[in-house]
Design a protein that fits this description.
The structure is a single chain. By secondary structure, this protein is of the alpha/beta class. It has a domain of 310 residues: TIM Barrel (Alpha-Beta Barrel), CATH 3.20.20.140. Helices cover 28% and strands 23% of the residues. It contains twelve helices and 18 strands. Strands 1, 2, 3, 4, 5, 15, 16, 17 and 18 form a nine-stranded mixed sheet that branches. Strands 9-10-11-12-13-14 form a six-stranded parallel sheet. The protein has a three-stranded parallel sheet with strand order 6-7-8. Strand 10, helix 4 and strand 11 form a beta-alpha-beta unit. Helix 4 crosses helix 7. The structure holds zinc ion (ZN). Zinc ion binds next to loops. InterPro entries: Allantoinase, Amidohydro-rel, DHOase/Allantoinase_Hydrolase, Metal-dep_hydrolase_composite, Metal_Hydrolase. Belongs to the metallo-dependent hydrolases superfamily. Allantoinase family. Pfam families: Amidohydro_1.
């Protein structure tokens, strides 16, 4: 196919490192990564972005879009516009908080029909594993979900109950039968029950109610089950750095376990949360600064694979000042890249690292083979970033449905200049274009 576009920059982030390059695009795919001064093929349009960095489009595999059913919290129109503005070209939607949840093939079709006309970026779906839907898992897998989410403690919504250890084993055995993936909210319910639960506006009280041991124990049980059943499992939103040694040990012995963490755990600390500021509430919780340092060490040594948003917004009225009753979820979809880059650069990490954590690794987790890197054959998805420019977060300027965010007022490094999806610009200086996103299905 003929080259239609050449994207040129002095800093293109490729799997082999960052270098001056001209990325030749044929239609929707990357045809070749050429030398910077390569001759532009006749008929191709040149887009020279100067010294701005060209990253692979980010892949966010942990987004709660809540549409249909709780669209006042977030919807496909608003979420995918925010994603495009933030340099994200693919999201994978979580199976809960929408109504219906994505727990049957029929429900998946409802969600796909809802998303199709609103998608500004490419959208895939996770299925859900409930106590009573083991028989739905293979049909959902065949229908194209990328894996299954389960909870081991209450999820926060009644229609998505958690699995006990026997139910987890039954679901894992079923999923292992077709080499599927189980992604797990790992907090142990018994440890949560044993922790002090008090109605309070103080963050320390909330933190004490979601102890590290709840995560550590749940992850240990999960690793045991994965080892026993040969199942492939993924730990969602790791907060407790105490679990890193056991995860690293499990991986060394060949247990198939991967791990993600989130921008809020890597950039915000328990020490800074003001009284009543429940925009900082999520489960598991943001922990102390020392814990954050250890999570960064886990990224640096490869124990943690990916950084994804866990964007889980609600309307402002559900963020009551009492931490025990406020909705748990942090809204950050549009801000993940600058939030992470601001902290990564301070800690001496490169944009190559950021691309690996926020694009390559999440794409690999879900098996999105066309996404996740700037190399020939992959989709022409790019985020063009001015890494040294700064901005101050103004919630009113975000495309999220609700302007509640723990990042309000923060000054961040990294301004997304444009975002490109399959060879076409889908956001320009924060302004999203018309929706051209596609619905993605596993192995399609
Ligand atoms: Zn989540």
């Amino acid at each position: 196919m003929e080259v239609t576009l050449v994207l040129r920059s002095t800093r293109v982030v490729t799997p082999e490192g960052t270098r001056p390059a001209s990325v030749a695009v044929a239609g929707e795919r990357i045809a070749a990564v050429l030398p910077y001064d390569a001759k532009i093929p006749g008929g191709a349009r040149l887009e020279d972005v100067g010294d701005h960095v060209v990253l692979p489009g980010l892949v966010d595999t942990h987004v709660h879009v809540n549409d249909p059913g709780r669209t006042e919290w977030e919807g496909f129109w608003t979420a995918t516009r925010a994603a495009a503005a933030g340099g994200i070209t693919t999201i994978v939607d979580m199976p809960l908080n929408s109504l219906p949840p994505t727990t049957t093939v029929g429900n998946l079709r409802v969600k796909q029909d809802t998303a199709r006309p609103k998608a500004h970026v490419d959208v895939g779906f996770w299925g859900g594993a409930l106590p009573d839907n083991v028989g739905d898992l293979r049909p959902l897998h065949d229908a194209g979900v990328y894996g299954f989410k389960c909870f081991l403690s209450p999820s926060g919504v009644d229609e998505f109950p958690q699995l006990d250890q026997d139910q987890l084993a039954a679901s894992l055995a079923e999923i292992a039968g077709f080499d599927g993936l189980m992604i797990v909210h790992a907090e142990d319910p018994h440890h949560l029950d044993a922790a002090p639960q008090v109605s309070s506006p103080h963050y320390a009280d909330f933190l004490a109610s979601r102890p590290r041991d709840a995560e550590n124990t749940a992850i240990a049980h999960l690793v045991d089950q994965a080892r026993r059943l040969g199942a492939r499992v993924h730990v969602l939103h790791l907060s407790s750095s105490d679990a890193l040694p056991l995860i690293a040990a499990a991986r060394r012995e060949g247990v198939r376990v991967t791990v993600e963490t989130c921008p809020h755990f890597l950039t915000l600390t328990a020490e800074e949360v003001p009284d009543g500021a429940t925009e900082f509430k999520c489960c598991p919780p943001i922990r102390e600064a020392a814990n954050q340092d250890a999570l960064w060490d886990g990224l640096a040594d490869g124990t943690i694979d990916a950084i994804v948003s866990d964007h889980s917004p609600s309307t402002a009225d559900l963020k009551t000042p009492d931490f025990s009753t406020a909705w748990g979820g942090i809204s950050s979809l549009q801000l993940g890249l600058p939030a992470i880059w601001t902290e990564a650069r301070r800690r001496g990490h490169s944009l190559d690292d950021v691309a690996r954590w926020m694009s390559t690794a999440p794409a690999a987790l879900a098996g999105l083979d066309a996404k996740g890197a700037i190399e020939a054959g992959r989709d022409a998805d790019f985020a063009v970033l001015a890494p040294d420019e700064t901005f101050t977060v103004d919630p009113a300027a975000l495309h999220h449905r609700n302007q509640v965010t723990a990042y309000a007022g923060k000054t961040l490094h990294g301004v997304v200049k444009s975002t490109w999806l399959r060879g076409a610009r889908i956001a320009d200086h924060g302004a999203p274009a018309e929706p051209t996103g596609r619905l993605l299905e596993r192995n399609k």
